[in-house]
Q: What sequence folds into this?
């Protein structure tokens, strides 16, 4: 897209600029043909259209969700809606705090387990693995990202849940099983982005550290990880977004009870799972409440994207040396 | 010591004890042999310059002294390199400890993306210095010796990368000096920086030789003539064949009355 914009920019002045036009007549410079010019212009507008459709998609979804969900804030009130501990839509109780709580608990646990795993994988790939080993491991990690979440759900349901059940004397439906499955699911996001951040560090930095008498491990944790810090934090934030938005796999293993449980091995529900569970039959204010929950999810992901953008600004101003 | 092994190359090494000696060194990158049959003694507390056309193995040779070549897979060193009469390639020698004693400055300034203070404190911290007061003192002293203290004493918390190229190179020198090395290897340290900083670096090299042995690779012959006491001239005569040490002598001799025809040709700019 940028390439084509540059090309057309580079060639446009020739056709528009009268000076080069005359020199063209003198035979020293060839003019851009009319056909090329039109093609360039058409392509540029085509790409503009693509970008416009994408942006419109976001705007329309936001408007749709916003309009449908807004009344819950107006009629039930933000405090009763967000802070209410009772989710009983059939009797008019629309408190989603148990669901927010569920989303937070499931996401945090997944991050706590998944982040070290993913950052460790990134460090292995970028600093330790030989090119051959990396050539096998990296695609395998990327493949994890491509597995449909319903498959993760099956894996969680049939393999992880029974293990958790045995260890906890319960059924195995609950936050813990969600943590385990989500931890695996966020590894590819965090690992590949963190690896990119580590690999973008110039080799001169590594050489300098080794030449100072540092070991590989010291080089990694004293120089490389701090240098890639912002990129790694970005990766974790995006992993967070993945964890909080994940629906199907979580739905299959957390038990879907919309209340605050006594223990992490008891059934729990999240914002996303509750929307899926209720949407088929919800009507009236109940349905509005589900859209209200969607607004929250929308807001969270916008917040996370904003955070990432802020951090990369910080990074570039740091690179520029403040 | 053992000057007789290369007395045909120099009468230079007889005045000071040698800090480093090299006997019959050959170096391979996989199947490619980059250096052959190098014999040389590096005088203690002096500046020795390595000169020669680009690609003749100066950097390769320099990196043999702190075993940086160990980090490149498939490399091989044959022959003997000693530091204070101790074989640095002997089994059991810890390259990490060797590199503390033999510091290195690279062509491209490579400060860590952290504060100026943390850059200089990096080595001491690696080797276990924790006390703030002690670190403060090391940082100040090292920056002083690297001719940089005056410029940065009020901005120690700023990122090292925010400095100019020449300042960054002096920061790298301070970082090396902070661990009190016995030898400092400098691989074309001035080829990517501004003239003012070049001047400052040449000045500080002269001051450092009261304690430190310096080897500098340079393809600026004026620089070699200005800063060094001894000069070694390397040449790879045929592409694909290993380079050799053509001549090693006092710098004044190399630049005024070279013994080898090839040295003379290079010095007078007839090739290279
Ligand atoms: N990592 C490497 N792998 C293979 N060959 C190398 C490597 N580094 C340098 N060489 C080769 O070794 C020779 C000497 O290189 P170098 O020591 O960098 O020369 P100089 O520093 O004198 O310019 C060159 O022919 C170069 O191509
Ligand atoms: Mg070189």
A:
């Amino acid at each position: 897209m940028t390439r084509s914009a540059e090309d057309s920019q580079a060639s446009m002045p020739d056709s528009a600029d009268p000076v080069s036009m005359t020199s063209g007549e003198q035979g020293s410079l060839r003019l851009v043909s009319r056909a090329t010019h039109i093609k360039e212009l058409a392509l540029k507008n085509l790409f503009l259209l693509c970008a416009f459709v994408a942006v419109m998609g976001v705007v329309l979804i936001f408007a749709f969700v916003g309009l449908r969900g807004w009344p819950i804030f107006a009629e039930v009130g933000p405090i009763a809606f967000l802070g209410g501990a009772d989710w009983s839509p059939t009797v008019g109780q629309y408190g989603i705090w148990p669901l927010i709580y569920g989303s937070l608990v499931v996401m945090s646990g997944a991050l706590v387990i998944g982040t070290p795993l993913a950052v460790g994988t990134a460090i292995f790939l970028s600093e330790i693995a030989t090119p051959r080993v990396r050539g096998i491991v990296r695609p395998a990690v990327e493949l994890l990202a491509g597995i449909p979440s319903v498959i993760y759900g099956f894996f969680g349901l049939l393999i992880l849940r029974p293990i958790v059940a045995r260890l906890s004397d319960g059924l195995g439906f609950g936050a813990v099983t969600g943590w385990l499955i989500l931890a695996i699911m966020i590894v590819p996001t965090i690992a590949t982005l963190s690896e990119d951040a580590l690999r973008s560090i110039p080799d001169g930095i590594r050489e300098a550290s080794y030449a100072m008498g540092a070991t590989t491990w010291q080089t990694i944790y004293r120089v490389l990880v701090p240098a890639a810090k912002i990129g790694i934090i970005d990766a974790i934030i995006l992993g967070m977004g993945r964890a909080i938005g994940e629906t199907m796999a979580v739905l299959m293993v957390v038990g879907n009870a919309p209340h605050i449980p006594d223990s992490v091995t008891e059934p729990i529900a999240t914002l996303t799972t509750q929307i899926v569970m209720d949407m088929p039959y919800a009507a009236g204010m109940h349905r509005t409440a589900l859209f209200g929950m969607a607004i929250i999810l929308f807001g969270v992901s916008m917040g996370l994207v904003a955070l990432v953008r802020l951090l990369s600004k910080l990074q570039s101003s740091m690179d520029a040396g403040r | 010591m053992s000057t007789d092994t290369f007395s045909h190359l120099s009468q230079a090494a007889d005045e000071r004890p040698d800090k480093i000696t090299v006997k019959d060194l050959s170096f391979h990158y996989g199947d490619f042999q980059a250096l052959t049959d190098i014999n040389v003694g590096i005088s203690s507390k002096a500046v020795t310059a390595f000169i020669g056309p680009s690609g003749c193995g100066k950097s390769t040779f320099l990196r043999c002294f702190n075993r940086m070549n160990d980090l490149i897979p498939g490399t091989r060193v044959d022959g003997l390199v000693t530091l204070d009469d101790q074989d640095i390639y002997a089994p059991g020698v810890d390259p990490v400890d060797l590199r503390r004693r033999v510091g290195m400055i690279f062509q491209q300034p490579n400060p860590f993306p952290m504060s100026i203070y943390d850059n200089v404190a990096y080595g001491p911290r690696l080797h276990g210095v924790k006390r703030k007061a002690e670190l403060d003192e090391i940082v100040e002293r090292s920056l002083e010796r690297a001719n940089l203290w005056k410029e940065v004493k009020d901005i120690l918390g700023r990122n090292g990368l925010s400095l100019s190229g020449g300042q960054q190179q002096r920061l790298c020198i301070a970082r090396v000096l902070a661990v009190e090395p016995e030898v400092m290897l400098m691989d074309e340290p001035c080829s990517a920086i501004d003239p003012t900083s070049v001047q400052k670096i040449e000045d500080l090299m002269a001051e450092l030789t009261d304690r430190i042995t310096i080897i500098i690779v340079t393809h600026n012959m004026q620089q070699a003539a200005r800063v060094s006491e001894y000069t070694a001239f390397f040449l790879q005569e045929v592409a694909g064949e290993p380079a050799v040490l053509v001549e090693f002598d006092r710098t004044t001799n190399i630049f005024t009355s070279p013994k080898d025809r090839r040295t003379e040709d290079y010095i007078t700019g007839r090739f290279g």
